[in-house]
């Protein structure tokens, strides 16, 4: 007649949750040097994130389009100046940035 000592694996769960909140998006944009060419509310080299959010408001596939553009770069939407590719940005990071940019008001 022994009692069972079944301890739940709480430390593992806590570590998992902490890993999910690595970067808030504005800090991520700073760290990936997006802010060298973009600002939230004025044009620098690239369009302001407010203008980007306004242009794509209500478009269902906007996040996917932005993810591709952020990683591969491109030109012709806002003018002749191209955005260079950003190979140091992972798809997950690009998605986080895209969701944030499209939510800027
Ligand atoms: C060297 C300057 C430069 C850097 C660095 C840069 N961008 Fe851009 N970005 C631009 C330019 C220029 C455009 C306009 C391109 C066009 O007209 O198609 C642009 C456009 C965009 C757009 C709108 C795309 C569209 O098709 O409407 C998004 C979103 C964006 N950038 C996000 C980012 C993010 C996120 C980063 C950082 C990972 C970044 N940019 C880094 C210059 C830059």
Task: Tell me the layout of helices and strands.
Elements: H1 10-20, H2 25-31, H3 49-56, H4 62-72, H5 91-103
Helix pairs in contact: 2-5, 4-5
The structure holds heme C (HEC).
Heme C is lined by residues 29, 32-34, 36-38, 45-47, 52, 66, 69-70, 74-79, 81, 83-84, 86, 89, 97, 101.
Task: List each distinct ligand once.
Answer: heme C
Class from secondary-structure proportions: mainly alpha
Instruction: Domain count, please report it.
Output: 1
Unreliable stretches: 13-21
Structural description of this entry:
It is a single chain. It contains five helices and no strands. Helix content is 48%, strand content 0%. It has helices spanning 10-20, 25-31, 49-56, 62-72, 91-103. It has a single domain, classed as Cytochrome c-like domain (Cytochrome Bc1 Complex, Chain D, domain 2). The radius of gyration is 19 Å and the shape is globular. The longest helix is centred in the C-terminal third of the chain and has 13 residues, at 91-103. Helix 2 (25-31) packs across helix 5 and helix 4 packs across helix 5 (91-103). By secondary structure, the chain is mostly helical. The chain binds heme C (HEC). Heme C (HEC) binds at residues 29, 32-34, 36-38, 45-47, 52, 66, 69-70, 74-79, 81, 83-84, 86, 89, 97, 101.
């Amino acid at each position: 007649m022994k009692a069972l000592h079944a301890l739940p694996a709480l430390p593992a769960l806590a570590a998992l949750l902490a890993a999910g909140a690595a970067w808030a998006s504005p800090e991520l944009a700073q760290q990936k040097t997006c802010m060298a060419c973009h600002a939230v509310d004025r044009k620098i080299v690239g369009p302001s994130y407010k203008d980007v959010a306004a242009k794509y408001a209500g478009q269902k596939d906007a996040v996917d389009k932005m993810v591709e553009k952020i990683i591969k770069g491109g030109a012709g939407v806002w003018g002749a100046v191209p955005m260079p590719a950003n190979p140091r940005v992972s798809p997950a990071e690009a998605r986080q940035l895209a969701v944030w940019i499209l939510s800027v008001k």
